[in-house]
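seq:
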Amino acid sequence: MPPPSSTPPTPTRRSPPPSHPPRAPGNRTPVPTPRTDEGRTAITPWRLRRNPLRRRTDLFQAWLGLVLLPTVLAAAPVAAYLAADAAHRHYTHTADRHTQIRRHTTAVLVQDAPRHPEPGSAEEKNTRYPAEVRFTDAGGRTRNATTDVPPGLRAGSTVHVWADAHGGIHGPPLTPDQIRSRTMGWAILAALSVIALGSAGYGTVTLVVHRRNVAAWATAWSGTAPRWTTPK
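struct:
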């Protein structure tokens, strides 16, 4: 039997434990969100981040946008409310005044109204032709005037008109639905005007800042270009 070997056995080397736990097949290791030196995430607007390439105009433009956006969002509903209130008071007063000075009366056609070229059509129902009518005003005097009537009416037919004290024929006073519709229109127009003014102001400032940056870049390049283009 051979004598035992005097060479000691070679120890088995163990690999160091992995720095990350093993992941299951098909799963991706979550990537941490990069952060800036101040602790803000990388989603911070680039004009607000500290970096050697940031210019004062970039910072000014960023703060202008941050201030202008909430200002416009706050001013738009205020402008809409003020415009709606003023419009509602104006149209309500106008409707009340027209109701007082205008009288709903019956007028008689003096001559036949023109016929529509397509009798019985949907267009005929919405078409009106000017025709002369005769009516009696509030003072008992007979007056003649022109008003719009449906097509095909014969002379002697009666229509209802709104006449004033001077014998003029006008449209009826505004209804509550018409007042409400016009009020909403002015409110929407006021809100859109504020948004348009804010956008136009920001766009104008951005254009001026851009031109200033280009001019500054041209001035800086005029001093740097010779060192790049002049042969040594």
